[in-house]
Structure formats: C-alpha cells, structure tokens
Amino acid sequence: MIYDIIVIGAGPAGSTFARETAKSKKKILVIDNEDKSNQKPCGGLLAPDAQKELAHYDLVLPSNVLVSPQIFSVKTIDLNFKLIRHYQRYYLNMDRYLFDKYLVSLIPNNVNIVNGRCIDVVKDNDLFTVTVSCKNKVKKYKSKFIIGADGCSSIVRKKFFKDNTMKYIAIQEWYKCNDKSNSFYSCIFDRKTSSSCSWLIHKNEYLIYGGAFDIKNAKENFEIQKSKLSKFLNLNISNVYKKEACLVYRPRHFFDFVTGKNGAYLIGEAAGFISPSSFEGISSAFKSGSILADIFNKTNDDKKIKRFYKKKTCVLKIKLMFKVLKRWFMYTPFTRFIIMKLNIMSIKMKNK
Ligand SMILES: Cc1cc2nc3c(=O)[nH]c(=O)nc-3n(C[C@H](O)[C@H](O)[C@H](O)COP(=O)(O)OP(=O)(O)OC[C@H]3O[C@@H](n4cnc5c(N)ncnc54)[C@H](O)[C@@H]3O)c2cc1C
C-alpha cells in the first residue's frame, strides 16, 4: 500500500497535522516512538498562545493532564547578581507525556498509527520509503509525501535539508519532593555556566531542575550551576529520581526556519519553530501543523504546497524573530540587571 502522507512524530505538531488532514480522506500513516520509557524532556507549561491554538479548534484539556501546583508567576533568579524578581505568567502546568497522549487520542481512526522508530527515509522515483524499527522488527512504508514532525533531531531535516541552526543541550533532573510549602516556578540565569536559561518547577510529587546549556561542557556546567543554585536557595536537589536530555534549537535568523520542498515538509520544532528566548514551542508546533494541514486539505500540487506553506508561516517566523530581540534584553547580563534592579514589570511582593 502506498500512503498519501507519512508523518514522522506525533508530538503537538504531528498530531495536530494528522488530526486535521484526516478530514481530507487521504491515506495517512503516523510513526512515533514516544512511550513511558522515552518521553520528551519538557517543562510542560502551556503558554497562552498554545491555549489560544487549542481554543481555535474548540478543544479543552482533561483534568488528568494538569498537575499541581498551577502557577501565577515566574520567580526569576540571577545567580551572578544574586537578584530575585517575580513576573506574572499565565501558563498551565501539565504532565507533558499525558498531554501528548491526549493529542494523539484526538486523531481519527482512519489515520494509521505505528509505534516505532524511523531509522531511514529515502526518496526514489517520487516516492518516499520510510524504514521503521518496531519491536525488534524492521518494516518499510511508502508514501507520496513525508512530514517531518520529529522535533529537534529530525531525521527528515537531516536527510533532505540543511541543519546548521544553533542547538543547546537541554538537561533535566527530577527529584521526589513532597514538601509543597514552597512550590514555585523559577527561571534561572547564570552567565558563568550558560548563555541560556534554566528552570525549576514542581509537578505533583516531583521537583524538576533543568536548563539549556552550550553543547561544549554541558554536563559539567549543569553540575556547577546546580550546586550554585542549591546553595543560593538552600534547596536539596541531590536525590535524583530520573535524568533526561535532548537537543533544542535556538533559531537566530530567518533562514534557520526550514519549511520544506519536493514532497518533504517540516512542522514544529523540526522546522525550527521554537522561541529562542523562552523555548516555548508548543504553540508554534500547533500553528505550523494546522497551517500545513489546511494547505494539504486544499491541494495535492507539490509546488503550491511549497509556496503556500512558506508564505503562510511568514507571520510565525516574524513573531519568533521578535523573540530574538527579546532574548537580547533578557540574556545580556547588563540589561537584565537594569530591568531587575529597577523592578521593571515585576510584581511587588507582599510579606517579603
Ligand atoms: C527541556 C525543554 C523544555 C521545554 N519546555 C517547554 C514548555 O514548557 N512549554 C512549551 O511550549 N515548549 C517547551 N519546550 C519546547 C517544546 O517541547 C517543543 O517545541 C515542542 O514539543 C515541539 O513539538 P513538535 O511536535 O514539533 O516536536 P516534539 O514534541 O519533539 O515531538 C516529536 C515527536 O517525534 C517523535 N520522534 C522523534 N524522532 C523520531 C523518529 N526517528 N521516529 C519516530 N518518532 C520520532 C518523538 O518521540 C516525539 O513524540 C521545551 C523544550 C525542551 C527541550
């Protein structure tokens, strides 16, 4: 059987695309390798833009996806200047794995879903052949179009397009933590160990500490920063329940976004659609997945798909480029110091 479309990856981008193209009666296959032992490392915060995307489809969140506590502010910590400020935020705190499973459950039954790892994609005579390893067996599937919704380490992007966008290594540790007396969400800056940021967040009975680090010496810098942070906050984060890591994009230029051509298209983080300032990427995954689905629902002409997708993602690209500017203010130690010191936009804390 030859599929019309094979989608690699069923994160927010892939499941949105598959759910929306299912209406077109095309033969669609989704291949995804996420399971309990292979979960996406993520802060699991649903930003207002992502909530709005769900609202566009009249979708709601089941309560089992939400975790405790829900948060109203981010406690921003600068470890160099030893400053703490609070800023209002409107995120929903979620279990990222259950969120992904919920999104997959919304894909209609006429879409086939295979649980396996795509290990190769080749194009031959206008058809793509996708090799998938599942349960120690290797299977091959053929399609007319291929959609890379497989995140930052996208096999589709590596095979068919340039992949020289800057990347960080995101490292996260989970700790058992039953003390809810001081629950918070925190964003941490420490220019000595990272040119990016880190975060602390409570999720039910766990506390997560994670951060994005330059690839060189990432592990060492994670440990140095962790020890600084635990001293600064007097926090016990030594008893590691689990540790996870993955690559994450930091788009810096317009040409870091790759939308695709010649039957191969990229959505979500695989295309580079992620905020370079906060690493918020779920909203862009929804947006790009739904834009491409709309186009596929209207045409099968590859030239038109390429042109319309490039054009219709322009607003998203411009929005993400504004975040490059925002990043400059947040990540330049001097401007951050001034903003924090002058209490610009921060919440005045009572009882402190
Ligand atoms: C540490 C960290 C924290 C983050 N925190 C947040 C946050 O709090 N809020 C937010 O909005 N964004 C956050 N992001 C960004 C967000 O996770 C991504 O931008 C978003 O998940 C992108 O969605 P996606 O569908 O494009 O890709 P992904 O969510 O990465 O999904 C890709 C899917 O493809 C599958 N896959 C990959 N390769 C293969 C393969 N070869 N074969 C089969 N399947 C494959 C994966 O298993 C996965 O299910 C964070 C990112 C990181 C790294």
Q: Could you explain the architecture of this structure?
A:
- By secondary structure, the chain is an alpha/beta fold.
- The chain has a domain at about 1-40 and about 95-165 and about 250-325: FAD/NAD(P)-binding domain, CATH 3.50.50.60.
- About 30% of the residues lie in helices and about 30% in strands.
- The chain has helices spanning about 10-20, 50-55, 95-105, 155-160, 220-235, 280-300, 300-310, 315-330, 335-340, and strands spanning about 1-10, 30, 45, 75-80, 85-90, 90-95, 110-115, 115-125, 125-135, 135-150, 165-175, 185-190, 195-205, 205-215, 240-250, 260, 265.
- The strands form 3 sheets. Strands 1, 2, 7, 8, 9, 10, 16 and 17 form an 8-stranded mixed sheet that branches. The chain has a 7-stranded mixed sheet with strand order 5-4-12-13-14-11-15, sandwiched between helices. A two-stranded antiparallel ribbon has the order 3-6.
- A hairpin with a 2-residue loop joins β8 and β9 (about 125-135).
- α1 runs parallel beside α6 (about 280-300) and α6 packs antiparallel against α7 (about 300-310).
- The longest helix has 18 residues, at about 315-330.
- The N and C termini lie far apart (about 65 Å).
- The mean pLDDT is about 95.
- The site of flavin-adenine dinucleotide has 39 residues, from α1, β2, β8, β11 and β15.
